[in-house]
Amino acid sequence: MDRIADIWGPRTPHPRGTVWPARVDRHLQEGVAEEDVDRWVRSACVLCSNGCGCEIAVRDGRMVGVRGVATDVVNHGRLGPKGLYGSWPWANSADRLTRPLVRENGRLVETDWATAMGRIAEVSRRLLEEKGPLSHGFYTSGQLFLEEYYTLAVIGKAGLGTPHMDGNTRLCTATSAAAFKESFGTDGQPGSYTDIEHCDALFLFGHNMPETQTVLWARVLDRTRADDPPKVVCVDPRRTEAAAEAERTGGVHLAPRVGTNVALMNGLTRELFESGRVDTDWVERHTLGVEDLRATVEPYTPEETARICEVDAEDVRRAARIFGESDRVLSTVLQGFYQSHQATAAAVAVHNLHLLRGMIGRPGAGVLQMNGQPTAQNTRECGADGDLPGFRNWSNPAHVRELARLWNVDEMTIPHWAPPTHALQIFRYAEQGSVGLLWISATNPAVSMPESARVRRILGGGQCFVVVQDLFLTETARLADVVLPAAGWGEKTGCFTNVNRTVHLSEKAVEPPGEARSDLDIFLMYADAMDFRDKDGAPLVKWRTPEEAFDAWRECSRGRPCDYSGLSYDKLRGPTGIPWPCTDEHPEGVDRLYGDGVFNTDPELCETYGHDLLTGGTVTPTEYRAKDPAGRAFLKGAPYVPPHEEASEEYPLLFTTGRTVYHFHTRTKTGRSRELNDAAPDVWVELSVPDARRLGVTEGDRVRVESPRGAMEARARVGQVAEGAVFAPFHYGPGDPDEAVPEDFSRQANELTMTVWDPVSKQPYFKTAACRVVRVADGGGPAPAPTTAASRPVDPSVPPTRGGPGAATSAEVAADTPGYPNDPAQAPAGDGHIAEAAAPGRS
């Protein structure tokens, strides 16, 4: 089966309330048959945030393929195109980093580990003596393992004492965490993937699920194509596959003007109040702030909402009516809401809808504030993104003391005198030189951060010593002073936690190439070189292996909302991943949170005391305690304010960025997969039919897109984007992955974006920039955009996207799995992860 052309695979529809049938997807290297595989090694896919259970095929010491795990509660055996075709080919690339590099006379040259780490430690010690711990900054990824994040957090917070720690999760899912804290007291996904099987309405807010989480969308399709489908409501300025499914199921596609999400959400919320569809008894018992919220949304009538958002007022009423009349609504949220100037306010407004109807914590009634990366949740839990480990509150002295006792350090070493530093501020400090050492791991900010020309100047300037650890010589690594070769997925052991809190163990399948080392070993090497010690003179970091690091993390999480104390490597070697909290009381984990209507808002438990959603101003501990939340959730609102930059006579269009189904982030891995690269080999720009006609642009013409900050050039796809908007994928750097010296940056969408951020989550603003489009030349053929999803053309003559032969899909494999209820009729009478997990062998 060509899974490039058929992204989601064959359908297995089933009735509401029954278990999603299993279907095992598999792809092996050309010329390798299943009987040729030496062994299969358990893992989970790391090319989106879904966290699909899988097994790695190993032959002659090399990764040669992957297959899904039928018994895994996340994916029931399915894998998407990125997982099938992109998981492993990169590992065998000839351009892997295999030795450390150091900069000599302006050039990166190979060296040994002792020299490279010695140079880092020398600079680090000098900066600590001259400037103190604020001279150090760490910028990490959402793709390392839990054990590596926790080790880095201990080094940064207890070894160095720097608050300058963040990850590229700031670019994609910082708002998810911020919204949870503002509404419920702490981070932590309240909903579950199993809610898809039980909901009677599905709302997707700024979430192009068909392309960002393909297996999750397959799960949705298997319900919407059943005889009793849920209605779908899609909020997206492009006509995505989700929008098409909304129209097919009798739902609504709302295509608001870019940058107006809060106005739309206020309009939907007002309609719930006006129609009397608020569960007033539940709201009174379990929430605070309802009257303030009602006053905030009162001006946003359907007509006023329609005026601001450029949508139909009746569509606003229909969407609100579906939410208000449905018994079980599942809402999912992603970048369309997160990468905005009012990101947290918009995401919190989704919580408000659910709280007003008492629809949280029960089957089919929940929220999934999605992540963009496979281990973004671990970054947040472990404290590698600036937060304190275990969802502790940096402004609660008792929480700081807990960590100080656990690590046996002086509590004043742990930075807690001010909010942790977010990524864009860390880069500002590096630009100014106050951060003199910036350590970047497993991410490529030279392509992924906003206003990328500025980022290149920061990384390439002499004011900051830059360390990069990665798999390849990325655009960022080429600017570094020291480059450290890292081991990747399948080349090391560790755990990671997906969007709905499900923890998987990924076992080492093969050896890394050359002298490449795991990120854990690299961090331990640095700790040894710096000789970090606790109060008793013992080594600060007391573990040497991934399992020892996991056990240390278990103790750090014990008693906190993200409690891992009931998990172990042995337990995670079972048939499925397990969601936290996993404790003696809940040995198989908990499928969804807040079913009892009690939230983590107690002052001694909460992770934050909250913010003003409009200004970002913090709520003081005294003000918070005066509210006496007592386990009640917060209803919070904010008025709509226009985006920082709007269309003008000079720049009449609005530029927005996003993803395509075939690539992940900056293509470090997926760009090295022949199938994925052939499907989307180069950047493109999407225009609506009316805008293309006005500009004299036809399919495939080369266009130049300009903003006040920079420009990009690409061939045009005349397609499904809303009139007035211009879309481009952000994945593409200046050249192909094997290009030695990049010079042309016209492929980078982030040349145009702004260095501004949401006042609460500090997530940068990728979704709106004023722009103009100029036709440059005839492109000589159609745009290199796929034809399979939201980027499909209006021109029917464009050849369809093909190119993924060899991916097998076998529904029969699941039938051979003992105990797995492949027949929906065998679904347990109860509900939730416990019932599903028991079926594959935990009963």
* Unreliable segments of 5+ consecutive residues: 812-843
Helix share, percent: 25-40%
Number of H- or I-type helical stretches: 28
Radius of gyration: 25 Å
| Sheet with most strands: strand arrangement | 6-5-17-16-15-7-8
Instruction: Briefly note the structural class of the backbone.
Output: alpha/beta
Report how far apart the termini are. 35 Å
Quaternary organisation of the protein chains: single chain
Number of strands: 28
Instruction: Please tell me what the overall shape is.
Output: globular
> Can you summarize the main beta sheet?
7 strands, mixed
The residue-averaged pLDDT reads 93
Beta fraction of the residues? Answer: 15-25%
Could you characterize the architecture of this molecule?
The chain has 843 residues and is α/β, with parallel strands linked by helices. It is built from 28 helices and 28 strands. The strands form 6 sheets. It has a 7-stranded mixed β-sheet, with helices on both faces. It is globular and about 65 Å long. The two termini are 35 Å apart.
